[in-house]
Amino acid sequence: MYICLCKGITESDVRSAGRSGLVMACQLKSKFGLKEAGCCGRCSKNIQEFVELATSEHRLPSPSEVRT
């Protein structure tokens, strides 16, 4: 799913960046060129969504999510 139409950024793009170690808001803004020319800035205001997606690859499951 697209999360930034201006730049054509998808959820998988952000998850891939997270797997590469880019998980901080400033890193993601720089990687994807948020707030640069041609971007409305809306996704930069909602950067937490990017951070959550990027870190989702590194998050350990909670005990209730683990099946034995």
Q: How would you summarize this macromolecular structure in one to three sentences?
A:
With 68 residues, this protein is mainly alpha-helical. It has helices spanning 11-19, 25-32, 42-45, 47-55, and strands at residues 2-4, 9-10. It is globular and about 30 Å long.
Describe this structure in words.
- By secondary structure, the protein is mainly alpha-helical.
- It contains four helices and two strands; from the N terminus they run ββαααα.
Structural class label: mainly alpha
Average pLDDT for all residues:
81
Helix content: 40-55%
Counting H and I runs of at least 4 residues, what is the number of helices?
A: 4
Please outline the major beta sheet: 2 strands, antiparallel
The side-by-side strand order for the widest beta sheet comes to: 1-2
Unreliably modeled segments: none
For the terminal residues, how far apart are their CA atoms?
32 Å
**H/E series, N to C?**
EEHHHH
Number of strands: 2
